[in-house]
Sequence to fold (370 residues):
Amino acid sequence: MRTAVNPLTRLPERWEPLARRSVDLLREHQDARGAWPASPAFAPYGYSWFRDGSFIAEGASAAGLQAEADAFHAWCAAVLERERPAVDRVLAMLEASERPDDADYLPARYRLDGTRQVDDWWNFQVDGYGTWLWALERHLARTGASAHVYAAAIETAVRYLVATGLATCRDWWEENRDHTHVATLAGVAAGLFAAVRLTPLPRDLTLSAVEVADRAVDLIRTRGTRDGHLVKWLDGADVDASLVSVAALYDVLPLDDPLVTATVSEVEERLVDGGVHRYEADTFYGGGQWPVLASLLAIHWSRSGAPQRAAELLDWVATSADHHLLLPEQLPPLLAPDVLDEWLERWGPPAHPLLWSHGMFLAAACTTVG
Ligand code: BGC
Fold:
């Protein structure tokens, strides 16, 4: 195993307390079996999402928490191996031109013991499985460990994504079931490209994986754009801050592609007000600003040679922590303040801390120091 210099020691001093607190929180709240709850203090988020967890694992891995990232990836692999019969069933239905119910597909989140939570959550989202493959490749590249032990799980994830990755499903925000989302397509493509680099797969599966990944990128470039920038879903018009991930995280378009630079300008212009909103029509908890998205945008600027802008965004994230250095899911100003009470009555105050906020801060802060 490679031993690297602890990246946290190279961070600007003003980010160090939050970075250290984030590391402690990720350690403290990781379940013994490897899963991270989305939030340890907000009942609806007491589950482990493949999306949140994979981004948390990326932050953990970047910050030197190799054993913790290993444990999460092993947990994901165990989940996927257990889910293999469900994947076989979905594939058989699709092959027979039957329409699976959303509950037939793999869920977005699991209980911490890796079993499914059966309820009416908006579960059908495939980006998490692509994001897992993407994060796994990055983690193994850092540690120098082999992908061998993950081979069966990688193959299951690839078979699933090849069959489902270009269809409609819910987006990063668990909304808009009937669209094909650009950030999701990017996660699918990045995951499939990572998988074929990670492990030898049966030849026909490798070919299908590359074909679906290429098709996803092609769809992004064609039907995923309008007026020269990316849009939230195919043939749509709206901008969503998750689009920054297409280049900044998933690398399926170059950072300096005109589509990417125009998208980031749209996000900066329409969604940034110190922090970053998800999208203009957001009403969830009144539509606040998300530390996860400020960190994501910081990764874009840091990797694009604009460290000053990256630092401004990370300074905003640091000041959005409370006096215990805990980061929330979102915070004011709100886009739709009238809708806040509805959510407060339904679920109580929003998630705080959100482990994804801490994981993404670590990922972004580490990006700024290489
Ligand atoms: C967000 C998702 C997230 C989940 C758990 C939802 O409200 O929209 O992106 O995966 O919470 O954090």
Q: What stands out?
A: The longest strand covers residues 48-49. The first helix runs from residue 16 to 29. The beta strands are 48-49, 109-110, 225-226, 229-230, 272-273, 275-276. Residues 16 and 233 are 37 Å apart (CA to CA).
